[in-house]
C-alpha cells in the first residue's frame, strides 16, 4: 500500500516552522504527511528517507535566509534529484537575484512573502499539488505510450521503431553501425502446431539466451513476429563471429520449453552502414531466405539489383507525397466522335517529386502493396472535383478496390459533390480491371450506391483480366472502355477488328456507350468512327497534362 505523499517545510525559525506546519496539517493533514526541517542539510536527510519509500514528495516550501546553504542554492540543487516536486519560496528577505536564480535554475513554482496570507498560502499549495500530480500522470501516460511504441508487447524487448529511433538518434550521421538479422523460419509451423502462447514463450527465451550470450555488449531488438536484430558498434565481421557462435549452439542443442525440445531453423544476414544498415541487412536476408541457407549472407552492392531498397525509398516518397498533398491530377481529353470536340476529361494520378513527375507505372504497384493506394485515390477524387468545380466539362476518375471496399465511400463522394457544388451526372467513376467483386462483399453495393447518387460508371480496359462479360451481369455500366491492346493494331489485325465490333454491338444492346483508348494515329481513328464508337481517347488528341487545352484546341 502506497504511503501518503509529503509536503516538506524548511525554515530556520522554529516558531514560523511550527506555525506553518500546524496550518498545513489542518488543511492537508489527512491526505499528506507534513515534514519540517530547520536547515537545507536536515531537509536533504529527510528527502533521502522519502526517496527510500514509494511516496511522493509533492511540494517543498523553503525559506531563503538559512544557516549554511541558502534557499535558492538548495532549490537549484534539489532540481537535479526532484525535478517534478513543486518548489515554493516563502521569505521576506530574499533579494531579486536569489528569486531569479530559483526561477531560472530551480524551476521555482511560486514566491510568497512573509508574513503570508493564510488563504493565499493554502490556495498556492493546492495548485502546486494539483500541478504535481497532473505532471506525474502525464509522465506515466507518456511512459506507457513510449513502452507501447518502442517495446514489443509480448517480449518487452525494444522493437523496430526503437531500432529506427536509435539509428537516427546517433550524434554523427556518418557513424557506421553493424547489424545482424536473425529470422526464425520454423516459427510459423510451431504456431500452427502448438499455438501462439508456446511461440511467445519460445521467442522470449530465445531473446534472453541471445542477450546473455552477447553479455549485454550489443543491443538486441525484437523487430518482427519472427525476426531479431542485433545492433553493434563492432566491425561487421566481429559481430558476425559473435552471432555465429550462438548459431552453433542453436544448431547443436534444442531450445527446451517445459520439457519439450524445439529445433529452431534460422536464416541470418548482416550489413554495415549508417541509418540504412537495417535495410541493407533486410535485402541480404531476402537473399538468405531465397537460398534457404542457414549460413550468413552479408550485404553487398549486388543485392541492390533486386530493387528492394529502391522500392522502399520510393514508398517513402509516396507516403511523403500523400502527407504533403502532392498527389496531383493530370488530364487527358476524351473526344466526342459526333461533334469532334473534347467534351470530357479523364483524371490521372501523378506524384510531384521535386522537379519530376512520377507516373502510375512507377508507383501504383508499390502503393497497392503498402496500402497507400486508398489515400492516393481519395486525394485524387478531392483534387479533381476541386479542379472542375468551376468548369463546364464532365470528368472521369479511376476507382481501385481499396475505395470500393468501404461501405461509407459513396456517402463520402456525395459529401464532396455537395461541397464543390458538382452535379453527380458530370462524374464518371472508372472501375479498374484488377477489381474482383467476389473478394469484397461491399464493392457491388458501393457501385450501385454511386449510380443511385447520379454518378456514371465505366468499365475500364474492357476485355482483359476481371473486365469481362461477367461484369455486365453484376451491374449496368454506362460506358465500356475498350482496352488498348484491341485498339492499337485495329487497322492491321482482323481479329482485333472483329472483337471490337462485337464489343460495340454488345454495348448498344445493353445501352452503354463505348470509349476507345490508346488512339494514337489517324488510321485507328478512321476505323473507330466507321465502327460507330462514340468516344476516343489517346495521344492523337492529347497527352496527359496538368492543364486543360485552350478553347481553340478543344475543337479538332
TrEMBL record:
GO molecular function terms attached to this record: cyclic-guanylate-specific phosphodiesterase activity
Domain EAL: from-to ranges: 311-556
Alphabetical keyword list: Phosphoprotein
4-aspartylphosphate PTM sites in chain numbering: 63
BP GO annotations: phosphorelay signal transduction system
Domain Response regulatory: 6-129
InterPro entries according to UniProt: CheY-like_superfamily, Cyclic-di-GMP_PDE-like, EAL_dom, EAL_sf, Nucleotide_cyclase, Rev_trsase/Diguanyl_cyclase, Sig_transdc_resp-reg_receiver
Source taxon at top rank: Bacteria
Record has Phosphoprotein as a keyword: yes
Name listed for the protein in its UniProt record: EAL domain-containing protein
Organism: Leptospira bandrabouensis
